[in-house]
Write a structure and sequence with these properties.
The complex is a heterotrimer. Helices cover about 70% and strands about 0% of the residues of chain B. Chain B is built from 14 helices and no strands. Chain C has a six-stranded mixed beta sheet, sandwiched between helices. In chain C, strands 13-17-14-15-16 form a five-stranded antiparallel beta sheet, with no helix packed on it. In chain C, strands 2-1-4-5 form a four-stranded antiparallel beta sheet, covered by helices on one side. The chains are: A mainly alpha, B mainly alpha, C alpha+beta.
């Protein structure tokens, strides 16, 4: 890894400069992570008197546990749903805004601010709109013949949390798509136009392929967001229900650790989640490296 | 534009206006709901036009809170959120500036090792190791304190990376000129590097303030004393506290107040916000 | 004011790469020395070693009578002008000049006096409140000089200070630097890759290649008697022609080359040392075919092929001759214009 061609002399100063960051990292990141790893191999008896080393038993149980497998499935559906919904809307908006000249900034401003809304608040907002008793959405849906109730229907609940999570993420995706679109050389599009490609055809054969690095990057970011940053959306609205229908992995770690006090299982879940994060991060960084080499 | 077709443009405007409507709608509904008396929400459909109770509702949440559900007045929670967000932001910025400075401008044993230690923090969002992290904070007696709310969140790989990246683009000669001019490392850092980074610092400030303000799970666990409740987690208490239907008019007034500060930050510093966002994630 | 003495100075980087080898150089007080050579020849490294920006791994460096090998740049009493100026972008011109003085805890009044004086000398007094980005390239260059000037140091170090300027400004600044240096009489070490800049600025110039000194001398010494084939090729534009001695012996009278030392197998010939005038007493004649004529107003460059050689050579005439491309021409030259070299060692004989 690079430094400057010439560096300052000094033996203790760099360590002192790094100390605060490293201290926080060690105490609040590395140590807890290693504790999770340790805990994942232990099990306490129900009275908390004995702690046994149980090898991979926690993991084996977990992977045999239908509730955990359900959470896994729910997480996949939730992540994909959120990613697809927010990315496709964001792309649509970005393409449209990119056509504009005078109104571009105005639309951008109107579309970016939901980024500032906390996931938990996003959840509450949509929960209110979809409230079975007084919400406007169920009222409209009833007119269309659908009896909305996210308190009893798992599908409805899932749709609700996906909408809430995706809504907040649109602005982020929009900004990146817009930046991506603006970096496509106009000459390429003009060349395609001279070659006789229609507007739609130009988009799918020239613009969209050129956006693929951004698209890929956003996919990873969105999956990470949906998996790890949406605790608030779930917790403030469905609390994982009904009947586990929206119990995503991150929420389950919290429930099992703090509500059900099953530390071994919670730790094992943490370890699995960390592994997922590591994989996603490596994917993302490999991609960044590749992009740098262009 | 390759070609201008008016129908296409019209269609685009239509799509965007619809899009903006969808994006704005939830907050619009919240603002409307926060102006109605409680009776409005007992039956029927939520209102879509403003009601007469705005002043009363906002006064209630700001001054009185909802003691029945264990929620303190909002003023205190807003203040707590602000203090937490500022502490996280300033903490992150300062320790990241210092570590990036060390990594870029010094050569020392274990440099790569420390770089990876910091890198690890990027990989481990607090949500995935929540139980042991809580344990550490509890052991350090930092529950129900601003220190507990902020310090565990101030390690930042993202900011360190961004500053590292930026420092690498600062011309070598500036540091050499400063040395010839008799500036030591810390003097160079203070007189030259930090002033040059000011745009980056401001851009990251926007992103991190929002990050800090929107913290949810962490304050939920760390604070049991209403004294330290933050506004974002306070809303959850209001929604789920008590068995009855939430008092929507008050909840929505709180939601509006909770969402307003970060939204204002984005709107007023949009250019910095976009820069911060697109550059940290590169 | 001080002399600078380099004794066997060398630099090996941590990775084992050798940048500078065995440099011995005495710079007299007030002298202007130019280090010149192609990129990668070690000239900048050598300058930076003097500045204290690169550690010295071999030999001894003295400024005045102090050994400064291990001193920080700020303690060496030198000032430096950087290639890209390295002005502090967030500071005004005034503060750029004053920064080094403030760091030395100089009295405010004295700082003010020096900055004003330097600004006047460099005609940047009107810009003292501006930021560097509001200045033109030439003005920035002056500010960079000003920053060195206010320090009133024992020596100025210039690291290719003119290479970012356009051609016209470069000539103008070159003249100004020389005048200023003469007026102040400050010892100066100046690095450039431009041989013309080196010739015009230097009291003495030092030609470097591969981290070693090839030749030290006044501009005219180096030009008139290049010590190696490298110097011969580097100093002078167009570069000196190199003719194989064997071929030359075949095309001129047998005794014409008798004055050249034995073993001279490569003969250098400056483009301007040939003329179209008919050979008279003692001058040699070479026949060549004109391949390309480049008229350049006051002078012209003739690209020719000599009979029996495949390479093209250049002849510079102080006028534009009335000749056709493809014509067979006869050039005359003085015997003294021939520079004898040993092809193997590259040394002048």
């Amino acid at each position: 890894m690079q430094t400057k061609r010439m560096t300052f002399p000094g033996s203790w100063l760099p360590y002192a400069l790094l100390a605060p960051q490293v201290a926080v990292t060690l105490v609040f990141f590395i140590w807890p992570a290693s504790q999770a790893l340790r805990q994942s191999f232990l099990r306490q008896d129900i009275f908390g008197l004995r702690t046994d080393f149980v090898w991979f038993d926690n993991f084996e149980r977990l992977l045999a546990d239908p509730l955990y497998l359900n959470a896994l499935k729910v997480t996949v559906i939730f992540s994909l749903g959120t990613t697809l919904l927010s990315m496709s809307l964001a792309l649509l908006f970005a393409v449209m805004v990119n056509r504009m000249i005078r109104s571009r900034d105005a639309y951008t401003t109107l579309l970016v601010w939901p980024y500032a809304v906390a996931p938990a608040i996003a959840g509450v907002l949509w929960w209110f709109i979809f409230n079975p008793a007084i919400g406007i959405a169920p009222y409209v849906l009833a007119g269309l013949g659908h009896d909305w109730n996210h308190r009893s229907s798992g599908t409805d609940a899932m749709v609700l949390v996906i909408i809430a999570a995706a809504w907040k993420q649109i602005s982020y995706n929009f900004l990146f798509f817009l930046a991506g679109l603006q970096s496509i050389p106009q000459s390429l599009i003009e060349a395609a136009a001279i070659d006789g490609a229609s507007r739609t055809k130009r988009f799918w054969t020239i613009v969209f392929p050129l956006l693929s690095p951004v698209t890929f990057f956003l996919m990873v970011v969105n999956v990470v967001y949906a998996m790890f940053d949406t605790f608030g959306v779930i917790h403030a609205t469905t609390e994982g229900g009904p009947a586990q229908a929206t119990n995503i992995l991150v929420y389950k770690v919290y429930r099992d650790g703090f509500v059900n006090l099953d530390l071994g299982s919670s730790a094992a879940q943490s370890v699995i989640l960390m592994a997922i994060v590591v994989v996603l991060t490596v994917v993302q960084f490999r991609y960044i490296e590749r992009r740098v080499n262009y | 534009m390759v070609e201008n077709n008016r129908i296409g443009d019209l269609l685009a405007h239509l799509v965007l206006i619809l899009g903006v409507a969808v994006v704005v709608f939830p907050v619009y509904v919240a603002i409307i709901a926060s102006t109605h008396p409680p009776g409005t929400f007992v039956r029927g459909v939520m209102p879509l036009l403003p009601g007469p109770n705005a002043l009363e509702n906002y006064t209630t949440v700001i001054v009185e809170g909802r003691s029945r559900a264990g929620t303190p007045p909002i003023g205190g929670m807003l203040w707590n959120s602000f203090v937490m967000a500022m502490a996280i932001t300033i903490g992150k910025l300062s320790i990241s500036l210092l570590s990036a400075f060390a990594i870029v401008y010094f050569r020392f044993p274990l440099r790569i090792f420390f770089f990876w230690v910091i890198f690890l923090t990027l990989m481990l969002p607090v949500e995935v190791r929540i139980v042991p992290t809580f344990q550490v904070v509890a052991d350090l007696k930092m529950l129900n304190s601003f220190a507990g709310l902020s310090i565990p969140l101030i390690a930042s790989a993202t900011a360190t990376f961004l500053f590292r990246q930026f420092f690498m683009t600062v011309p070598e000669e500036l540091m050499e000129a400063a040395r010839v001019d008799g500036a030591g490392p810390m003097k160079f850092f203070r007189d030259i590097l930090v002033p040059l980074s000011i745009t980056n610092i401001a851009a990251l400030f926007v992103i991190m303030f929002i990050y800090g303000w929107n913290q949810y799970l962490w304050p939920l666990l760390i604070t049991t004393d209403p004294e330290y409740y933050t506004i974002v987690m306070g809303i959850q208490r209001m929604v789920t506290g008590g068995d009855s239907e939430p008092l929507w008019h008050l909840v929505m007034a709180t939601v509006v107040l909770a969402a307003l500060p970060p939204i204002l930050v984005i709107l007023f510093m949009q250019r910095l916000f976009v820069k911060g966002l697109t550059e940290t994630e590169k | 004011m001080a002399s600078i003495t380099m004794e066997n100075l060398g630099k090996v980087y941590a990775g084992g790469v050798r940048a500078v080898t065995g440099v011995n150089l005495d710079i007299a007080d007030g002298e202007m020395i130019v280090l010149v050579g192609p990129s990668g020849c070690g000239k900048s490294t050598l300058l930076r070693m003097v500045a204290g920006l690169e550690t010295i791994t071999e030999g001894t460096l003295r400024i005045g009578d102090r050994v400064v090998n291990r001193l920080e740049p700020a303690e060496r009493d030198i000032a430096m002008v950087f290639q890209n100026y390295a002005l502090y972008p967030h500071m005004t011109v005034y503060n750029n000049l004053a920064y080094g003085l403030k760091n030395r805890r100089m009295a405010r009044a004295e700082i003010d006096r020096r900055v004003t004086e330097a600004a006047e000398m460099l005609q940047i007094g009107a810009f003292l409140d501006r930021k560097p980005r509001q200045l033109s390239g030439g003005q920035r260059q002056r500010v960079a000089m000003g920053r060195a000037l206010v320090r009133e140091p024992a020596a100025f170090l210039f690291d290719e200070p003119l290479s970012n300027l356009d051609a016209k400004l470069r000539v103008q600044m070159r003249v100004e630097i020389r005048q200023l240096q003469k007026r102040l009489g400050t010892t100066s070490l100046y690095v450039t890759h431009d041989q013309l800049e080196a010739l015009t600025l230097a009291d003495r110039l030092v030609v470097l290649d591969g981290g070693r000194i090839e030749q030290i001398g006044t501009p005219m010494e180096v030009y008139a008697r290049p010590a190696t084939t490298f110097v011969a090729g580097f100093i002078g534009s167009p570069a000196m022609n190199m003719l194989p001695a064997g071929w030359l012996r075949g095309v001129v009278a047998a005794d014409a080359l008798a004055h050249l030392p034995a073993g001279a197998d490569l003969i250098g010939l400056r483009p301007e040392d040939m003329s179209l005038a008919p050979a008279s007493d003692g001058r040699l004649t070479l026949k060549a075919r004109l391949m390309l004529l480049e008229p350049a107003g006051a002078e012209s460059h003739l690209h020719v092929k000599f009979d029996g050689l495949d390479d093209m050579f250049v002849i510079r005439l102080p006028h534009v001759p009335n000749v056709q491309e493809g014509a067979q021409l006869a050039f005359s030259l003085a015997r003294e214009a021939l520079h004898p070299f040993d092809a193997k060692t590259g040394l002048r004989l």
